[in-house]
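quick one, 723 residues, struct below
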Amino acid sequence: MLNRFLNQPSRRLTASLVALLCLTAGPSSGQTLNLPARANDALSGSLFTNLVAHASRDDRENWIYAQVAGGNVPGWLRTLKSINTSIAGHTGTFHVTPDYLAVGSDQDYFLTPCTPILAQRLATRLGCSLTTRRMENLIWAAAEVRLNDQTIGPSPAMTTVPVFAWHNYMVRTQRNAFTNSNPLGALVSGDKKDVVISTKIYTNFDIASITKPVVIYGWHRLSQGGAVWQQLYNGHEETYADYSHGIRLVQSNLTVDGTAESVSAVLQSPTLNGLLSDEGVIPLPYYSVAPYPPKVLIHPRSQTVLAGQSIMLQTLAAGDPSLTYRWVSNGTILSATTNTSFLANNLGTANAGNYSVIVSNAAGSVTSRVATVRVRTNTLPLLFRDDFETNSAVLWDLIWASTNGTPDYTANWAYDYGASPYFFNGLISPIPPAPNSATGSTRALRLTVNNNDATSATAAVNLYPKAGNFSGNFSLKFDLWINYPGIAGGINSTGSTQHALFGLNHLGTNANWAPVTATASDGFWFAVDGEGGIATDYRAYKGNLAGTQIDLTASLGASDSSAAIYQNLFPAGRFESAGAPGKRWVEVELRQTNNIVHWLMDGTAISSRTNDAAFTSGRIMIGLMDVFPSIANPARDAFVLFDNVRVENLSPPPIRFETISRLANGAISLSLTSAPNDTFWLDVSTNLNSWQLLAILTTSNGSATMVDSDAPALGARYYRARR
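---
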């Protein structure tokens, strides 16, 4: 999954993201952008647009920088076009991109406007310059495809990504009409205004108060014989970019009278500037930009693995090259870990803990958020599992409830949250894979309530697997993500407080939540919100077959997120709202042992409850409730994700060796039996004192086999199986 954002050709993050890029000669056209190859699973233009649709300008531009530097640009944009120019007995040839800066694939790309600050940073990094007014006129004259200018009425929204995306659609629709005669990669003009190099960057200000402007020019109008819609103008701040702005890159190196020169030198030359400029000498042919300190865009993700397995921690950062990386484990900097990824093999309990990465360059340094690595030293047979990688709706019963009788909920099965953005302290990131998911696996069950229509009413949804009843000693485990609108505490939003639900020993036929009245309820269930916005963030309930549930929240000991137990469990910095588990994956467990139900989050006990005689066995439940008649705003940010739901047998049968034999080649074949879906460690020893992990096995239909190919032909070889 992370590779979508890194845009590297392998799952390993390489130094190419931070290496200074340049332009090199291409085999046929002469010049190409020397970018990393675009990864097969890199974000399409549409998915990238979705990611940054509601990001701040600065956050959006950090992401654009990382995508372009990482190679997520269409292949047809990489081959440059040669433009000839001449004046006063001098001739020159410069090389430009065939269209404006774009993110995405050949088929699904996004022509992305940006400020001159970002444009200059990218141009410098790629060994390029921006164009001038004269160069743009030459490009129009040489263009193989000339498009009609398409405008959108002025409004405050014209600087937002949704309008960028709409204009992108308009331009692409028109461009597609020419692809048969002029495939993508042909020189295009007329689709955007240009951010240009000009004397007006530093002088002759159109608005006296704007002394750090963006200079724009162009949008040649096909309907008017190439007359420009926008004369040279510097009346917007350098932080401004609207839907009409395009970034055309020109190679810094060019030829003049057959000799190698640079765009910068020509523009500063008293005799040669006319080749590229119709303003005379341009003394400072670039935008001045401040140093670019590192920005962490993707933080290393928390993971839970079995002992003996490996993890890969990864990050994505943007900033001036060269970026350096130092990985930190439990406060100690790890030696020889200077890449954008960190691989830890054969994990043991000593490897568990908190990991982060420090990213530095000449402009500063930044530390990522902490990733928690948990190492499980025992496993138990699975009685039920759903990782929601496919649509498993037929395996579940869904019960909804609302005070106005309207089914105001959504349940998205196998929902791919990998390109779903979330805001953490105002900065946007994609939701990472859940702790118990494999790297790149980003599907889950997504639930919403009370935001499908304009009527605000308390509502809930419960889901019960049809797999049957569970009794005795067992545990329900899952990964949980609670998203909410606004910032810490739900500030700058409304309707942010919604509670994730989970319970044991249910009938599977009732809506179990917390309305004022109910016709029937059953089982034990618990609830928690994500942002800690009320006094009862943590709740507990017992069912009542005769009607309204029994509220056990007062017996939790603490129900407000401000309590020390929650502040320590979900600390500030790691969690946006200290004391509440929102906007970050947490691991939840409901454990029933000897008729007592325990609620744990990230391994910490929250509550223990003795079973009621009426509810000692039954079905598990997951769900979501909103007990407030207020619709979340923005509604898109109010949802929960459930992933890797499983029920484990806490009283499993013993693991047994059924057969063990030596094969003709000296290898040893072993056959073991246990409960179906039981996972355990198989160890080997030659002296019964020192043991080594040989394999991690999972039974299929109650049995597992293993061939020890390293077994010696002679001598003692001992084996043991353990959970």
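The chain has four domains: 3-7+29-275, 295-376, 389-649, 656-722.
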